[in-house]
């Protein structure tokens, strides 16, 4: 009875003159690729019973060699000429072989001449996301030149950034990674597997060319405060410009931001002067023999130390104070 009831609920039939129409609910449609039409489905190999998905997978992978590698598949081995090798299903149409094996396989030249699909940038890993691109890596020779210019020749990081077209943050990262690499070499932490992995990844990704791919050194990062809209009521005759908007968002002027980005960094020409001028009076006490910890003393104001001992902090009480920020969001101020 239960099986009969389920069958009657899931299938309903209507009889007409000489015809019987059945309606099946919850019918599922298999997700066949867009190129798997009747004339493009490859035949089964070696007389085996295979589904359409298994045949398409065998067509994509290709044959194996005695090692078990798909030697004819162009994605089987990593690139060694600093070029990307991303899967392009629109242009490949399920054929990723270097050489066609049968009449159902298409060579790379035929795929290029077919004109199907749209042209994709070589640095675009995802076909449907045209805003995502692979970043370019700095060559080992350029890294050595940057390290020599800053550490040996004592060139400020601002001049090095203009010379190679790289941002100061990236130059500081190169110096920091070089310092870590030298530390690992002294400790013997760089093994053979790590070297092989580094060399393989280095050959897979494209290299940075200062003449073609120079970075925008005047680019200002978008502040997080400007991602949300704010509404302000002002008089019609009251002037309101970009400076007033920056004050409303509590943002510093663009000139100050650019100066801070260009002068920042451990190896900049302004680093030593800023370090001396921003001395806050803190010091570290001398450590005696047998002590495990070093104590750092910093002058602070009484109101900024924290909560006093014994003060009750209940955030669920009814008489808690409520305040609103410039955007109109409610928050609970500290008492």
Automatic annotation (TrEMBL):
State what protein this is by name: 37S ribosomal protein S35, mitochondrial
Listed InterPro entries: Ribosomal_mS45 (IPR021036)
Superkingdom of origin: Eukaryota
Biological process, per Gene Ontology: mitochondrial translation
Q: Name one GO cellular component term.
A: mitochondrial small ribosomal subunit
- Give the molecular function GO annotations: structural constituent of ribosome
Source organism per UniProt: Pichia membranifaciens
């Amino acid at each position: 009875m239960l099986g009969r009831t389920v069958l009657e609920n899931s299938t309903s039939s209507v009889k007409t003159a000489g015809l019987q129409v059945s309606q099946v609910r919850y019918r599922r449609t298999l997700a066949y690729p867009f190129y798997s039409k009747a004339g493009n489905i490859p035949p089964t190999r070696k007389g085996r019973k295979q589904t359409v998905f298994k045949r398409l997978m065998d067509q994509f992978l290709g044959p194996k060699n005695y090692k078990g590698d798909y030697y004819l598949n162009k994605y089987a081995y990593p690139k060694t000429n600093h070029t990307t090798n991303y899967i392009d299903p629109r242009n490949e149409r399920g054929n990723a072989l270097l050489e066609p094996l049968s009449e159902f396989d298409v060579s790379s030249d035929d795929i290029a001449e077919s004109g199907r699909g749209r042209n994709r940038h070589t640095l675009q890993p995802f076909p449907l996301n045209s805003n995502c691109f692979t970043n370019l890596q700095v060559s080992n020779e350029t890294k050595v030149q940057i390290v020599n210019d800053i550490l040996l020749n004592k060139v400020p990081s601002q001049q090095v950034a203009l010379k190679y077209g790289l941002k100061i943050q990236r130059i500081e990262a190169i110096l920091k990674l070089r310092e870590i690499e030298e530390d690992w070499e002294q400790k013997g932490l760089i093994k053979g597997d790590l070297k092989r992995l580094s060399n393989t990844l280095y050959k897979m990704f494209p290299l940075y060319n200062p003449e073609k791919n120079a970075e925008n050194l005047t680019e200002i990062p978008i502040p997080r405060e400007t991602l949300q809209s704010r509404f302000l009521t002002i008089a019609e005759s009251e002037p309101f410009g970009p400076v007033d908007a920056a004050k409303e968002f509590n943002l510093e002027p663009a000139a100050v931001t650019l100066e801070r980005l260009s002068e920042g960094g451990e190896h900049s020409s302004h680093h030593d002067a800023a370090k001396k001028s921003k001395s806050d009076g803190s010091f570290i006490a001398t450590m005696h023999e047998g002590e495990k910890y070093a104590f750092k003393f910093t002058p602070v104001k009484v109101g900024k130390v924290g909560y006093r001992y014994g003060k009750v902090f209940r955030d669920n009480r009814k008489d808690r104070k409520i305040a609103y920020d410039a955007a109109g969001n409610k928050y609970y101020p500290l008492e």
